[in-house]
Specification:
- The chain is built from 5 helices and no strands.
- About 25% of the residues are buried.
- It has helices spanning about 1-20, 25-35, 45-70, 70-90, 95-125.
- Helix 1 packs across helix 5 (about 95-125) and helix 4 (about 70-90) runs antiparallel to helix 5.
- The chain is mostly helical and about 130 residues long.
- It has one domain (about 1-125).
Length: about 130
């Protein structure tokens, strides 16, 4: 169960970065080009969902810390989550929210790299 949550946390950071047209007008424009303008009626729900995915990403990265014990990655995840919410609610800075999402993605990449490398090694050793 814990492995599943760790993977979901990393995916949640990427999805939150890509699925938040509320904060990112350029993504909303691209979404409208693909016919997703009909979802504008659900803007508030998407905004809440993006925040929930950020919380899920921080929880998943915190659970990943229990396995790899890398304090830098845990610190990056916590600071990035705080930057995202601080950018939304404290200073109303879109760039700080961007930076928080980018930090969550960056904190997810080493874990993704290690898991992918280990899977390739297992597959290679079975041959």
């Amino acid at each position: 169960m814990k492995d599943w949550l760790e993977k979901l946390g990393s995916a949640g950071a990427i999805i939150a970065a890509a699925a938040c047209p509320v904060c990112f007008p350029k993504l909303a424009l691209v979404g409208a080009l693909f016919g997703l303008g009909a979802l504008s009626a659900y803007e508030f729900q998407l905004f809440i969902a993006a925040q929930a995915l950020v919380v899920l990403a921080v929880i998943g990265l915190s659970l990943a810390y229990l396995r790899h014990h890398n304090r830098w990655l845990l610190g990056a995840a916590l600071v990035s989550g705080a930057a995202f919410f601080g950018g939304l609610y404290l200073v109303a800075s879109e760039w700080l929210a961007y930076l928080g999402l980018a930090g969550l993605v960056a904190a997810s990449l080493p874990e993704f790299w290690i898991r992918t490398r280990n899977l390739w090694r297992l597959a290679w050793n079975k041959k």
